Structures are given as structure tokens and as C-alpha cells.
């Protein structure tokens, strides 16, 4: 479980950095519909799904 915790923390930190980047990008572009904003948002969504799958996998052991 130790590795899961470390990996989970690293993923959470990475997600927080991406979210901050998303906030700045929205401010810069002035729209949630800018292609770059949508792309980054989708990357964050994918990371969230990865994290959820990891947690499900390791809690069902």
C-alpha cells in the first residue's frame, strides 16, 4: 500500500498543477471553449479516471 500512497500523492500533485495551469489558461484565453482549454480539461479528466481506477483496484485487493 505504501507505493499506492506515494503514487497517489504524486498524481494528486500533478493534477493540482494541471488545474492551476487550466485556471491560468482560461484567464488568458477568456473562454472555456478555447481548444487549448478543452484539451487540458480532457487531460485532467483522464488523470482523474486513472486515479479512480487505481483506488478501486487497490481497495478491492
Automatic annotation (TrEMBL):
It comes from the Bacteria. One of its GO terms (biological process) is regulation of sporulation. Pfam families: SpoOE-like (PF09388). InterPro entries: HLH_DNA-bd_sf, Spo0E-like, Spo0E-like_sf. GO terms for molecular function: protein dimerization activity. This is Spo0E family sporulation regulatory protein-aspartic acid phosphatase. It comes from Paenibacillus foliorum. The lineage of its organism: Bacteria, Bacillati, Bacillota, Bacilli, Bacillales.
Amino acid at each position: 500500500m505504501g507505493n499506492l500512497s506515494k503514487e497517489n500523492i504524486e498524481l494528486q500533485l500533478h493534477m493540482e498543477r494541471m488545474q492551476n495551469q487550466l485556471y491560468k489558461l482560461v484567464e488568458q484565453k477568456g473562454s472555456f471553449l478555447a481548444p487549448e482549454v478543452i484539451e487540458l480539461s480532457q487531460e485532467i479528466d483522464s488523470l482523474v479516471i486513472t486515479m479512480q481506477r487505481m483506488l478501486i483496484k487497490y481497495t478491492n485487493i
